[in-house]
# Entry
Amino acid sequence: MKILLVASEVTPFAKTGGLADVAGALPQALAGLGHDVRIFMPWYHAVSEQHPATETLKLALKVEIDGLRRSAGVRRGCLGDIPVYFLDYPEFFQRQGLYGTPAGDYPDNAWRFGLFCRAVLDALPQLDFQPDVLHLNDWQTGLIPVLLRSELKADPFYAGTGTVMTIHNLGYQGLFPPETLAELGLDPALFHMEGLEYYGRLSFLKGGLLFADRITTVSPTYCEEIQTAPFGHGFEGILQKRRKDLAGILNGIDCRQWDPERDPALAAPYSAAHPEGKERNKQALQGRLGLDEDERLPILAMITRLATQKGLDILEAAWPRLLRRPLQFVLLGDGEQQHREFFKKLQNRYRGRISITLGFDDSLARQIYAGSDLFLMPSHYEPCGLGQLIALRYGSIPLVRRTGGLADTVRDADQEPGGNGFVFGPPTADALLRALDRALRRYRDASGWSRLVAGALREDFSWERSAGRYVEIYQQAREAANSRAKDN
Ligand code: ADP
# Structure
């Protein structure tokens, strides 16, 4: 099958969160199954700095945004054997951030990603790549199914192209003022409650949810949750209506990219067969972060976007009771101002006991996964969560709230034989601390803890199984597109 994955971030080129990991790993698993997979993403400043060796293709893309015909280019690079096309439009994408600055989103994000969506569809005929399926991801790509089902409805090039929209996080809906519709050259007739309107604003994501042939999200539990009011962000009605076209497929991780046996960022390699190296990584982490070098104290770590979704308010409410426990605490994160401020204030306190790093740092993240004992994710909601999967792969035991993909991947070790972590339900500091106390009790039982770590190091979160499920969905989307083409 010919598959084009379109995403606003792809590892190793640009990343703010789990979407990038998925967009980088799934295509490689699909290619492994014998499919012709390609990727399309924007040519950001960060990509041009770190991956300059790309070829500029001779394409002439003309996209009209805000009444101006804009000429964009396409570059071609690769991810292993997979071709990666980059949309090159410096005015919109040569900036420091992907979506904004710490002060907030870029004000022209609708134009940036509106142009991206139009340009992708403009480029494919010129690239002579006619996909059987377009796999779209999150709001940044949500206008693609809209354009295919409106302006390009009768275009023979796309007659057999199915679309799959994956929701990585329903909390980000791509909402813009209503006049954006005209600026992006979209049909004003689309702006109504059954169309792209979301409480008086234009929603890119809603376009994707209404017009894609199939919708997926990244775990079975989140798939059920988003059909209910507390998790649906107002989209629960559409999702219930489309439940026959909706599936939850658990993310995997790229086990070559995340491999404690071969990770050059680590102080020492280790594996299920040779777990000894993990201790060296703990010492190295304590040294690097200025923590007391005490191997008896467990390190509780968090690597996260600083967003309320991640349950930072629960952690903040548990503070400083949490620190009365015998542990060290490490946080690496970046994001919302209110949480940055909370942790910034802590930066120079509790010396030797805690370490707070504000920023995005892939190599430090790897050292924390490897050097920590417990990995905290108290999320209010979590579509899948990759942090807990990477933590398990590195033998750091997850302590999570029971929601979304966390509920599907972490089994409480006190409740289930073969459990791999510690789980709590209520979104409260007390519940978090109770689960933490259970984890600390287990930690004091050295042989019980070693068994838990050994079990984590042996778990399999590779993409192969989930990639097969995506192929089934792609086939369904293609059939839907073909039968629509016949009816037209
Ligand atoms: P989300 O996509 O909601 O941010 P996930 O758990 O699915 O959460 O994925 C987060 C990914 O981003 C993981 O690979 C994690 O290691 C990485 N990550 C998050 N914050 C940072 C950071 N500050 N520095 C380095 N890596 C980070």
Observations:
- The chain has two domains: 2-252+464-487, 277-457.
